[in-house]
């Protein structure tokens, strides 16, 4: 925006600022009192994105601290990204307060100036937030698929190349939006006669394109490693599907890029910038959720049975209306199991329980039964069973990253994921 304001008096400048920020279409009159806006849609989108992203981060934090009991670099980065998402909600909310989502001809120029300031702050915070989210995902790739460089050097080098290219680009993005104009206040007061500004149109288009390409790269990067996993086809497809949820982040990024181009090419900046911002909010929230997904199966395996029992307490029958009166078969008690009578021939076919023989411990979780295999040391004089878990190596050696989707690296470089929920 360029305005010959050097010769304007203070009264003329005030009248200019009270006027519309852009010319209206033919036959349309400016409406400053009650213009059409996107306030309701922005508030709904902002709330949903914050709620779902926060739930994902809180479940991930609980799982890593209390179930896995491990905290890694990618956890720090996603927490920082989540906090910046919350921080970005403040200028995002201010944009609609200062005329965002209103057509240029229904917005006063002085309000548009405040909107430009909010947009500049949001753009800076966005770049840092998106980089931290992508960094968290890429660090998980390194921990899951490349615990050592020798295991998969190609994946190691490619992931590092993506990390550093994103770092350099988003660093330049932050520097560009901070130093867009000299003096800096000319960014939101473009009518000032002194100073100069760089053209942001080409950079915005390049930034949107790079962001979309980067999201697609992060999506397809682990796919070759996932396809080579030694597991049944069904589990392999489930695992690929979990990682492929990043496709939704790619969709939001592409749509954001599309509206970035509309902001550059169309004069209705105050309206199109908010539509672009809606997809920006969705992109950030989707990225945070995708980053947390590898941990969430372990959380649901832990919390699912407890939630089931909590909701099924009210539906349980009282002692007077138990299974005997309703005709339903009661579930056998684990503490006093119903052991069927075996014939001598069947008893002869059962091997003797010797020291370090294997037995199974049964857990009933809702309607599901799980078996855990243990080593059993039997004290022959007292016939008492001492159960102890089978010895394993450290979690960091067995499970790279200790995620709910756990990867085990054998000496031959084979990798598999536990996709059971």
Automatic annotation (TrEMBL):
Location in or out of the cell: Membrane
Taxonomic lineage from the root: Eukaryota, Fungi, Dikarya, Ascomycota, Pezizomycotina
Species this protein is from: Alectoria fallacina
Extent of Polar residues compositional bias: 332-351
TM ranges: 40-59, 115-141, 161-181, 237-259, 271-296
Region (Disordered): 314-351, 378-400
Compositionally skewed regions (Low complexity) per UniProt: 314-327
Assigned protein family: Belongs to the SAT4 family.
InterPro entries: Rhodopsin_dom_fungi, SAT4-like
UniProt KW keywords: Membrane, Transmembrane, Transmembrane helix
Membrane topology listed for this record: Multi-pass membrane protein
PANTHER family given in the database record: INTEGRAL MEMBRANE PROTEIN-RELATED, PTH11-LIKE INTEGRAL MEMBRANE PROTEIN (AFU_ORTHOLOGUE AFUA_5G11245)
Protein name: Rhodopsin domain-containing protein
Domain Rhodopsin: 59-301
A single Gene Ontology CC term: membrane
């Amino acid at each position: 925006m360029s305005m010959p304001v050097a010769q304007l008096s203070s009264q003329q400048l005030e009248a200019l600022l009270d006027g519309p920020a852009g010319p209206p279409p033919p036959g349309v009159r400016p409406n400053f009192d009650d213009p059409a806006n996107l306030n309701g849609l922005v508030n709904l989108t902002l709330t949903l994105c914050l709620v779902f992203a926060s739930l994902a981060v809180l479940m991930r934090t609980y799982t890593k601290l209390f179930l896995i009991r491990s905290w890694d670099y990618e956890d720090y980065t996603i927490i920082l990204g989540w906090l910046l998402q919350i921080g970005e909600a403040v200028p995002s909310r201010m944009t609609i307060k200062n005329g965002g989502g209103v057509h240029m001809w229904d917005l006063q120029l002085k309000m548009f100036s405040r909107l430009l300031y909010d947009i500049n702050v949001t753009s800076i915070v966005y770049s840092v937030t998106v980089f931290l989210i992508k960094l968290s995902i890429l660090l998980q790739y390194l921990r899951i698929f490349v615990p050592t460089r020798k295991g998969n050097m190609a994946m190691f080098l490619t992931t590092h190349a993506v990390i550093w290219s994103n770092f350099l680009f988003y660093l330049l993005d932050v520097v560009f939006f901070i130093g867009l104009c000299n003096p800096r206040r000319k960014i939101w007061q473009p009518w000032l006669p002194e100073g100069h500004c760089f053209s942001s149109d080409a950079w915005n288009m390049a930034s949107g394109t790079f962001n979309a390409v980067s999201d697609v790269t992060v999506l397809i990067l682990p796919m070759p490693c996932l396809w080579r996993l030694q597991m049944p086809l069904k589990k392999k497809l489930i695992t690929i599907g979990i990682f492929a949820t990043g496709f939704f982040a790619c969709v939001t990024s592409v749509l954001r890029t599309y509206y970035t181009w509309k902001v550059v090419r169309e004069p209705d900046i105050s309206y199109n910038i908010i539509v672009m911002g809606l997809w920006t909010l969705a992109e950030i929230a989707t990225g945070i959720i995708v980053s947390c997904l590898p941990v969430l199966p372990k959380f649901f395996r832990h919390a699912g049975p407890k939630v089931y029992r909590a909701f099924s307490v009210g539906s349980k029958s009282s002692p007077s209306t138990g299974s005997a009166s309703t005709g339903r078969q009661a579930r056998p008690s684990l503490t006093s199991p119903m052991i069927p009578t075996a014939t001598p021939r069947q008893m002869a076919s059962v091997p003797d329980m010797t020291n370090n023989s294997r037995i199974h411990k049964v857990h009933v979780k809702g309607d599901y039964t799980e078996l855990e295999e243990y080593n059993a040391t039997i004290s022959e004089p007292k016939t008492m069973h001492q159960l102890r878990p089978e010895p394993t190596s450290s979690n960091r050696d067995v499970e790279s990253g200790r995620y709910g989707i756990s990867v085990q690296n054998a000496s031959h470089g084979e990798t598999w994921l536990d996709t059971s929920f």
